[in-house]
Amino acid sequence: MQTTLTATQSRHDHPPQPALAPVRRVGLIDRLALRIGIALITWGRRPRTIETRERRANHIEQELARLERERLNERVLRLMIPPR
């Protein structure tokens, strides 16, 4: 069984035709509403309390301690693996 498929024919417009749908612009009221909406969302997501310097320092210390624990655990696991 020999079947030949025809190649898909591409369309050539010479000269190229303009787009059929006109470009729609966003109106001033829509842009203003969008900006107000984004401002309200960002305002609503603001932190309720201001983080103190001491709390930030504690957070950094906890993060460093966690990284050190992970590093030590990984070292122990690597030392326990039998050599190849």
Topology:
Blueprint: H1 28-44, H2 53-80
Arithmetic mean pLDDT = 85
Tell me the fraction of residues in β-strands, as a range.
Answer: under 5%
Q: How would you sum up the major sheet?
A: none
Fraction of residues in helix: 40-55%
Spell out the key features of this protein.
84 residues, mainly alpha, single chain, 2 helices
Task: Please describe what this structure looks like.
The longest helix is centred in the C-terminal third of the chain and has 28 residues, at 53-80. This protein has a domain at 55-84. The mean pLDDT is 85. With 84 residues, the chain is an all-alpha fold. The protein has 2 helices and no strands. The protein starts with 27 loop residues before the first helix and ends with a helix.
Describe, in short, the structure shown.
The protein is mostly helical. It contains 2 helices and no strands.
